Amino acid sequence: MFNISNLVQKAQSAAQQLIDPMQGLNLTNSDRNPAKSTLFQHQFRLPSSQTPLYEIPAELTIPLRTSPKATRSAIEAGIMLGSCTCPRPTCASPPPRQASRVERLNSQSFQFALAITTWNGIPQEASKDKDAQKDKSQIREQRITIQLAGTRQACERFCDGLKKGLRGGVGNVGKLKKVVAECYSEYLLRPEDKKTANPPDAGLGMMFKYPGDPKKLRDRAKMRLWAEYLRDNGRNATLIRQPTFHKLIRVGLPNRLRGEMWELTSGSFSRARSSLAIDEIEKDLNRSLPEYPGFQSEEGIGRLRRVLTAYSWVNPEVGYCQAMNIVVAALLIYISESQAFFLLSALCDRLVPGYYSTTMYGTLLDQKVFESLVEKTMPILWEHLVKADVQLSVVSLPWFLSLYINSMPLVFAFRVLDVFFVEGPKVLFQVGLAILRINGEELLDATDDGAFISVLKGYFSRLDESAHPKSENPKLRAINRFQELMVVAFKEFSGITHSTIQDLRLKNKDAVLNNIENFAKRTAIRNLGPDSKLLSPEELGAVYDRFYTILYERQQRDHIIQEETLRRAKTARPSAASAFSDHQDHGVEKGRVGLGPSTSLMDYDAFREFLAAMSKWAIADSPATPRRDTFADKDQGQYFSSFRKPNNNLLSPWGSGPEPAEHEFMQRLFRRWDVDSTSTLTLQNVVTGLAQIKGRRDIMGTITYFFELYDDDGDGKVDREGILRISEALLFLSRRGLEGTLSASSSNPSLSTLTEANGPMSPPIGGTMNERFLGSVSAFIRRCFEYADPDHPSNHIQHATKATPPKTTESDENQAPDDSAFAIGDDEDEEDEEDLLAFDGPEESPQETRKESPSAAKKKAALPSNLPALGKPDTENETQRSVSKAQSEKANVALDPSNPLHMTLPTFRMVVLADELLEQFFESSFPTSLHVTEGLPSVNPSTPSLTTFSSFGRSAASSLPIPQASANGATRGLRGVLDNIVTDASRVAAEVRRRMEEAQRELEQNAVPGQKDEEEDEDEDLRAPQSAGGYGGDAERRSVRSSDLDLLDGADAEAGASKGQEGSSQSILKPTEATSSQTGAADTPAQRIVEFEG
Amino acid sequence: MADSAGAPRPSSSVKLVLLGEAAVGKSSLVLRFVNNDFQENKEPTIGAAFLTQKCNLPTRTIKFEIWDTAGQERFASLAPMYYRNAQAALVVYDLTKPTSLIKAKHWVAELQRQASPGIVIALVGNKLDLTNASAAAAGGNSEDEDEEGGGGAAGGDGGDESGDARKISTDEAKTYAEEESLLFFETSAKTGHNVSEVFTAIANAIPETSLKSTRGPGASNAVSRGGDEQRVNLTGPRGDAAKDSCAC
Predict the structure, then answer these.
(1) How much is the pTM?
(2) Which residues belong to the signal peptide in this entry (chain B) (predicted)?
(3) A284 — contact with chain B (CB < 8 Å)?
(4) Nearest residue, CB atoms, A284 vs list B44, B82, B246
């Protein structure tokens, strides 16, 4: 039994870390010091694409050559665990760690123990960590036991991540095997009888001896020690570095292992070894110019392989494209490997840009150019082609792509190449036009592409024949068809110049790229899988556009900002040869889908931007730059057009769009959508994520979804913290008003009276709706705590029965019924405590409870009409308050952290359904708040679209001439909310507030110093200017305030009161500040109230 | 099959397109069909190759105009150019390579959405010679059906042990083909097994009504639409499937 911390002294902590086999940062750990993962990478020389995902203390056991076990695992999976292993990530492809099996063991002393069996069977079985090596002999497996010593939750999370990682790596096991097979260590440990094959290449030394005298170097002994070490601790990809490892290295590596160890310890093992392109290249090596004997030989194939492979590494964006093999093979007949390499680079970068890119846009573009040239120079033929519905490019595309090498006999193709290299790509067009011109007559007879092709095929096969066989003139007769072709090409079409081509390319570029993008879009959407069916085709299309637009925009901005920085630094930057033009576009279009591989992964920031373009709530509250609806002109699929216009906003980090908000809810959403834990979202992730919210359109589904967002460990419970966070999220989501179908509030008589009482400027329905929602949220918190199950055993039946009856009576009085409900909840809490003492009930609440609580919920559901009571005249509030104050102390019992509680999904559902507004929120408001298809209407951000506590109560029509009235509403609504919170959950509110403050600190810097807001509202600090003046000296309000003063202590209260009378916005804000400073110290309920009142 | 000197039966041409992942044997199938030949190292197809071959049915002669497309992923965007107006499609996968079936499914979905309505699609698993199951192509022995499992197995080199490189069971592919109303064959271009059968079956499946001796622009579209009723078997279910799989 080793303790990991001993094993890895240099690791920061005793930790077992799981490395994500997929690449990308993990935002799940965003709270983690990023330097840590960097350190980790350095420690184990990992590529930056591999970051530790989880960290958990653990103990590790490596059985040393114990009884062999020969079970072969059914699950092969890639897994990479950090810490002790030196995981060798292989290659670009997510390196599969080679665990063949992971089991969970029953362990006495630890909650979690994992056994990892690797697929490196070795003559002796022994391995630590999750190393496994692949060995065909499969003699024994390495088995490592890891005992996790973290908390249960941490362990579960770790295991979850491990599972995901394993699953993700499954596909790569095969590749890794190939890589590993080249390691000398594999060969070394193979049993003698299997050492038939040649040993892997361990350098020239194998042929020409290694320097030094092996005897003096004690090479054999060293080898023996290493063999032993490797047997016990895994090798290559699964090596575990124990202290011995370092010792062994210090005494000198044995010759044949030296190279492998260098590679391993330097971290180069993981790079380079393979790529997708290499697989593709291998497929084609044997079939490149097979008629040329050189490419039937190892020598020729080897050269071809090296050139293509080298290029695919150097230029991964191009990688390998079929036809390159043919071109390079042709080149290799005349030039050396390295020459061929550079020539290929010149081809791809300058001569035929984009021909071999992943979208082949260059090829497609030149086809369009070629077609327009044909139309211009041979109108009759062109007309015929159109009439016969023959697509020219089916014929001409291979000509261009293989530079005629594939089409003509080699001798002639090389002659075209001769001219091509000196005169540039226009030669390809000239030759192509000449071919059509010469065969024009026959082509006019061809009526379909089949006939068309056979005419040309015939022509190419007779290129060496005389062009004028019947001519009397022997000189003329000696001219072969190819010579004729060249003459026609360069005489008749001499007018075709580089600039002709360039102009036509520019002209056709957009159309071609749009085509490619549409195709890519269609394909991508089609392959999105079953979840996508939940969304309409329009929605899918829009999601696709939005997804790639955001990525594209961000890339643009990065690029421009980078350029700008460079420019400022006065660094002369050699502009990359632009693909299309002489006019430098600074590669501004880089990242465009049509141009080839671009990012297709969305990180968290991009995700925020993505949401901000669709949802009001995702827009930050800071004063935003005017939003330009960039999406409007994208509907035709030309979603890039707008970005080509000069855009002054590009230099802002968020471009022209609104600045996205940042909220914990969005992080959770991101994590939820990021099913692979890669910290990035694919289009698939986004579509699936959206489909789950928008697609199912049933309230239960949405409620469940929301609940699961906050159920971190997936145990079906959300704790106190989670409840608070849910309420925060609800406030966050609703702060700009609710959308969707909400029942008209006019159905509520009390409300309408209320609004009239407010005077002529009564807040319109929208405003009150939001007011009501705030009330609902506070009621939500209260109810959550009321109905939450204590983590301790409790008597739920009592709970349910007691809770119901009194409510009905109280609600009649137009008194906020929730208070009464709460009172009951209070009692219960005490009872619960007693119960706790009395007996140890079952942890799970009895079934009957579940049945009963809905009935309670129903009763409650009848109440929402009373909720607007929040906005009721303050006198009522006063009464309420006095009651609530008395209760608030009791309430604290429920909120006492020493009395942990949780809420289950049924409870959550019940609480939501108990409130009409919340119900509507989940039913329609939340799903519809994501405007996938139509985007956000151009919101003028200067109009206060925020429903915050400050603007709350103000009419949505914004332009309120009399701020007073709105102030009324604001105060009252605010008051209502605060009252409830104070009454029921002063602690809760304190916490909410604290957290909001943290989140808000940054934003506040933008706000006018005096404009701080109250309470939760601090979250949304975009305050309309009107609202600032909104706190007029409203008598009613003041009266409340003064009545509240009874509750307040000394100076703070007075400050609040006096300032309040001044009627300035600051009057309210100052006390807030004052009290906020004492938040932490506030112990008595009274003091707490100060905070909320301020 | 190609006795072009047949009796003066009515002759009509059919445009057929081959689609599938790179190196699954599309060109080899065509070469076998057209020239009854096999080349071990066939040059990769650039863009597409065009060949023709006649197929004699009892009542008529069908002249296949075969578009053999390039398989590499990046050539996919060119495909519409080739399957435009096609009346038949051969979607080929390599039954030793699980990924190739996934790609084949993508192609089928694309054809059902984008190609001429009523296009006859055949799903062909090639390289049967690499499996144990010889001629009769007995039921698949292979591992789990889903691609992931297959992928893992491929990684595990499981095939080598038995000498059977098959990674996609007959049942799996067949079930899929039935769901999508595709013709289904397992072939070997190398041995010639089942190759001509594929083409004959396609020829038979092409509805009479959509055949014309000349294929004018758009004509086949119109015709195949007209022929829908007669081909309830083929197009009926597929129409539904297409609707289901319609994603955009």
Answers:
(1) 0.61
(2) none
(3) yes
(4) B44
